[in-house]
Design brief:
Strands 1, 2, 3, 4, 5, 6, 7, 8, 9 and 10 form a 10-stranded mixed β-sheet that branches. This protein has a two-stranded antiparallel ribbon with strand order 11-12. The chain is of the alpha+beta class and about 400 residues long. The radius of gyration is 30 Å and the shape is elongated. A hairpin with a 2-residue loop joins β6 and β7. The two termini are about 30 Å apart. The protein is about 50% helix and about 20% strand. It folds into 2 domains: about 190 residues, no CATH class; about 170 residues, no CATH class. α2 runs antiparallel to α8, α2 packs across α10 and α10 packs antiparallel against α11.
Length: about 400
């Protein structure tokens, strides 16, 4: 049986050159599906990963009750004092409590690739912010000075947007602020600017802060910390572990990419499925006499079915390889940004084995479904009727 299957499959694959035009349609269709699928998965993974990497289990973020993200939250200026008084807050090296009150605004800057304006987040922070977020590292220039209209810019933002070199000026409100440093953080904070919260609040005439973030002594300290703040009658707040907050923030992105990935790619896959089915039906029709002769010589139906499926799978692998290579050439190593008025998230794209495997799995599934009915038709073809067709 195995020898029969191998012999028929080899014979079928050698005949693919005669069906080159039809086979190319399948390869191109599957390449398009896999290229889009791999590209979208890569973007989704990069952007969601950048968001989720913001979170540390030993940090807690305090927002106004019922606010789903920082931009919609407004807290009284004295909230930081209550947060600092809660149990479990770590002390910095200079014996200050690791708490930062953050103020968020946005500024439009032109992208490097197309010159289109997009929002970048400007985050005003307290002096203890760098003890709260030790992952922030100044890599060029100097730190901004409190009281002066100065900012430092994230490396990701600098690579994606023009006009953000050291020493350049950024128009905020009714004045220009000087870029005095460049920082990295490995997360979404790197997609914008940092500056002094009091100076930013004064420029925008803000009488509130958007959020207060504290670094805790340990992840286990969160429960007591949150309970103390929730029990304070002067506060109306929600308290989140940072990973939980950013997981919630990434849900919108997840829903967007779910639609693009599964709905759009499914429509494209349906088109590729039709193309694969037509090609396989054409292949079976052109081999009616050949298949009937093999059956008359004693070759079983199983070998015929496997030969048709093998041809379709080979076309799928060729298409998936082409689609993956094209997506890699377009996206790999590039930085992209997504976001609107509240600020863009910038991330560098990188392919993962899981993404490639998913693309190939989709391609093989489309190929098998497209070839299944033609393969069964070939197996059930009456020998006598097929021979009379000559």
């Amino acid at each position: 049986m195995l020898r029969q299957i191998v012999a028929i499959t080899a014979l079928n694959l050698r005949g693919m050159r005669e069906r080159l035009a039809a086979s190319s349609v399948v390869v191109i269709g599957i390449a398009a599906v896999v290229g889009v699928l791999v590209g979208v998965f890569t973007m989704a993974g990069g952007l969601q990963g950048t968001l989720l990497e913001n979170g540390r289990a030993d940090r807690a973020i305090v927002l106004r009750a019922a606010s789903s993200f920082e931009g919609s939250s407004t807290l009284p200026l004295d909230t930081a004092a209550y947060v600092a008084a809660a149990p479990g807050v770590v002390r910095t090296s200079d014996d200050k409590l690791a708490v930062t009150s953050d103020v968020l605004v946005s500024v439009n800057r032109p992208r490097r690739d197309d010159g289109m304006l997009a929002g970048l987040q400007v985050r005003g922070v307290s002096p203890a912010a760098f003890a709260v977020r030790p992952e922030i590292e100044l890599v060029e220039g100097r730190m901004f000075a409190p009281g002066l209209r100065e900012v430092i810019v994230g490396r990701n933002a600098q690579s994606e947007f023009s006009g953000l070199a050291l020493g350049e000026r950024v128009a905020l409100r009714d004045s220009e602020w000087t870029i005095v440093g460049v920082f990295t953080s490995g997360n979404a904070v790197e997609s914008g600017f940092l500056t002094d919260a009091d100076t930013l609040s004064s420029a925008y005439k803000r009488g509130y802060v958007n959020s207060v973030t504290a670094r805790l002594e340990s992840p286990a300290a969160f429960e007591a910390f949150a309970a103390a703040l929730k029990a304070n009658p002067t506060l109306t707040v929600d308290v989140f572990r940072e990973p939980d907050y950013f997981a919630l923030a990434s849900e919108d992105l997840a829903n967007l990419f779910f639609f693009v990935t599964y709905v759009v790619c499914s429509i494209m896959a349906a088109g590729a499925l039709v193309g694969a089915g037509n090609t396989m039906y054409s292949a079976v029709s052109s081999r009616v006499v050949e298949i009937a002769t093999l059956r008359a010589l004693g070759f079983g139906a199983t070998g015929v079915v496997v030969s048709v499926l093998a041809e379709s799978l080979l076309l799928a692998v060729l298409g998936a390889t082409a689609g993956s290579v094209i997506a890699w050439a377009i996206f790999s190593g590039d930085t992209i940004s997504i976001g609107g008025g509240s600020g863009s998230i910038v991330t560098q794209l990188a392919f993962t084995p899981a993404t490639i495997v998913t693309g190939f799995a989709w391609a093989c599934a489309v190929a098998l479904l497209g070839a299944l009915f033609p393969a069964l038709r070939a197996a059930r073809l009456p020998v006598a009727a097929a021979l009379r067709a000559t």
